[in-house]
Write a structure and sequence with these properties.
α7 crosses α16 and α10 crosses α11. This protein has two domains: 307 residues, ABC transporter involved in vitamin B12 uptake, BtuC; 243 residues, P-loop containing nucleotide triphosphate hydrolases (Rossmann fold), CATH 3.40.50.300. The chain is an alpha/beta fold and 609 residues long. 54% of the residues lie in helices and 12% in strands. The strands form four sheets. The chain has a six-stranded mixed beta sheet with strand order 10-12-13-7-14-15, with helices on both faces. 47% of the residues are buried. The protein is built from 22 helices and 15 strands. The structure holds adenosine-5'-triphosphate. Adenosine-5'-triphosphate binds next to β6 and α14. The site of adenosine-5'-triphosphate has 11 residues, from β6 and α14.
């Protein structure tokens, strides 16, 4: 793919890419070096009390990074990471207490401390993110899991040590300084790995999910599956931190798996700086160390002081401590259109999507029979029969509330309709989730532009290709490889000169065009467009019309266009279908429908069923 010829490259893109890569590398190198220096030189500088406290704080900081990846980057507010940490620590302490201590048993404890929380994380993820669950439900589960784990520890008797915990077992043969250095090196490694991951293309997927889960699903991704895997992986990382903690502290107690500790982790992450990686590290190190120091010096006042400090920090540094450190790194330039972006290149055509290949081009790409949809007793769609073939541009018109958007939903979510059949390229969509229907070759553009507000134009387009080009978990692709049709949309709308611009700065029309380009990036065979020209200028409308005509007439896609602008519909459609009060009342050529008395009656307010 990288051999493909460069089709477009703004004069600013290459130099600015270098400009932006430098601060990123500086941030990585600076963070890694600072943490390694702390790990290696700390024992020479600090007293024993500080070394003791900071060893624990650094382990907590590793745990806080897992909270940040889930909450800051993927948008899943979690109080449950303490449970995975506790399970890892207890698995270690129980093996070392009840089985014995040897290098082999320490290794066994490490395996158990990672695998058990990973399996638990997968189960918790599955319960939290099953199809149809809500963010609130996931957060409630994350509160319940630490409560259940803590209760199991209390009920465990001599096996878990109940409320007294476990103490007196032999961990690794390391001195206090040795544990400090080990914790510091592990924290440095985890921080750098997390920073590399969140800046990679795979890491951007988490931000995309946080921004707009529905759009992710309609780009062929499964946010549920991704979040389940993330929960399992971060459960394993928290378990590893638990293993280190059990070794370093020589004691485990039920409090380390409690939701109170889970909540503290969230507070540290928020005060340090959510979605920054550095934030949770600074938050955990700073607040845990400060709490430990103040609690010794002011046993009755320290919580009041810490509370006042929290309030002051929220007012003075709403973006967290990390904002102080990262202020000089990676700031975007003043002109959004001149932001860094990889050069555009043409991508080779993707492999045939999952649906049966269309050997006969006259065979329907979409076949709908007797489709119906009701909300309770309210029948929104009834007896819809529709067939669409490759190359057709079918406009779906009808007054407000006729059921047009509902029909689009029923064609892109296999669970949405109440009755009837719908097939894409001969394959029933029964029970298929939107991402699986996208894999059959369907692209959907929503009525209100559905893009990713926290990303740049180029990053949005890259997300649109993730289901086709597997993203790297440690790097950002050097080029932006898109289908020729998507590149043409970008050129016609001028977005090719704004690839580095943050989406939040785009106009309404630019967002509509960007979403259309993202849908076209999927190389769909059937495109569903819900009012793509709403709010656009005449020129922008003409551009979208030209693109749609090319996609259907020249490239053989089929398209269903929901549109209120009848002049636009007349100009570009090959067929018009009229929906009225949930029924398909007309299906014919442009001339036949436009001149029909039924349409005049419907649009003049008559035509009630
Ligand atoms: N989630 C829902 N629950 C209950 N009723 C709904 C729901 N979604 C849509 N409806 C109803 O279904 C009917 C059709 O709505 P729909 O949005 O599909 O119409 P439309 O033709 O797309 O209208 P518009 O042109 O205004 O977008 C409306 O009466 C609407 O109130």
């Amino acid at each position: 793919m990288s051999d493909a010829p460069a089709l477009s490259e703004t004069s600013a893109s290459r130099p600015s890419r270098r400009r932006r890569a430098a601060p990123r590398l500086a941030l990585l190198a600076g963070t890694g070096t600072a943490l390694l220096a702390l790990a290696l030189l700390g024992p020479e500088v600090f007293d024993r009390f500080t070394i003791n406290v900071l060893t624990r704080s650094m382990i907590y900081a590793m745990l806080a990074i897992t909270v940040d990846l889930l909450w800051g980057f993927a948008g899943v507010l979690t109080f449950g990471q303490a449970a995975f940490f506790g399970v890892g620590a207890y698995a270690t302490a129980m093996i070392l207490t009840h089985v014995g201590s040897s290098p082999a048993l320490l290794a066994l404890a490490l395996v158990a401390a990672v695998l058990i929380p990973a399996a638990m994380g997968w189960l918790v993820g599955w319960m939290s993110f099953y199809h149809g669950s809500t963010a609130f439900y996931a957060t409630v589960i994350s509160l319940l899991v630490p409560i259940v784990v803590t209760q199991l520890i209390y009920a465990g008797g001599a096996t878990t040590g109940s409320s007294s915990g476990l103490v007196g077992y032999w961990g690794m043969d390391l001195s206090l300084d040795g544990y400090f250095r080990l914790a510091g090196v592990c924290l440095a490694a985890m921080t750098v790995a997390a920073l590399v991951f969140v800046k990679s293309d795979a890491g951007r997927v988490l931000t995309a999910i946080r921004d707009n889960e529905l759009r992710c699903a309609y780009l062929g991704l499964s946010p549920q599956r991704i979040k389940i895997r993330l929960t399992a992986a971060l459960g394993a990382a928290a378990g590893f931190a638990g293993w280190l903690y059990a070794n370093a502290s020589g004691v485990v107690a039920p409090e380390i798996s409690s939701f109170v500790f889970g909540t503290e982790l969230v507070v540290w992450t928020a005060l340090g700086g959510r979605a920054t990686v550095l934030g949770p590290v600074l938050g955990a190190l700073g607040i845990d160390w400060l709490s430990a120091s103040l609690s010794g010096e002011m046993p009755f006042l320290w919580q009041l002081v810490i509370g006042a400090l929290f309030v002051a920090m929220i007012i003075v540094l709403p973006n967290g401590l990390a904002a102080l450190v990262t202020r000089g790194f990676g700031r975007r330039g003043g002109d959004p259109a001149m932001g860094a972006a990889p050069p555009l290149v043409e991508a080779p055509p993707a492999a045939e999507p999952g649906a049966a290949p269309l050997s006969d081009l006259s065979a329907p790409l979409l076949a709908v029979r007797d489709l119906s949809k009701s909300y309770g007793a309210h029948k929104v769609l009834q007896g819809i029969d529709l067939e669409i073939r490759p190359g057709e541009l079918v406009s779906l018109v009808g007054p407000n509330g006729a059921g047009k958007t509902t029909l689009m939903r029923c064609l892109t979510d296999g669970d949405a309709r109440s009755g009837g059949e719908a097939e894409i390229a001969g394959r029933s969509i029964d029970g298929l989730t939107p991402d699986r229907i996208v894999a059959l070759g369907v692209g959907r553009k929503f009525q209100v532009a559905s893009v990713f507000e926290s990303l740049t134009v180029a990053e949005c387009l890259r997300m649109a290709r993730v289901s086709i080009d597997r993203p790297s978990p440690w790097a950002s692709a050097e080029t932006l490889a898109l289908p020729a049709a998507a590149i043409e949309i970008l050129r016609l709308t001028g977005l090719d000169r704004m690839l580095g611009a943050p989406v939040s700065l785009l106009s309404h029309g630019q967002k509509q065009s960007l979403e259309l380009a993202m849908v076209v990036c999927l190389e769909p065979r059937l495109i569903l467009l819900d009012e793509p020209t709403a709010g656009l200028t005449k020129t922008e409308r003409a551009t979208i019309g030209a693109v749609l005509r090319k996609l259907t007439a020249e490239l053989g896609c089929a398209a269903i266009l929901v549109e209120h602008d009848l002049d636009f519909v007349r100009d570009i459609s090959s067929r018009i279908v009229v929906l009225h009060q949930g029924r398909l009342v007309l299906d014919g050529t442009v001339e036949a429908v436009v001149n029909s008395d039924t349409v005049r009656e419907i649009y003049s307010g008559g035509g009630h069923a």
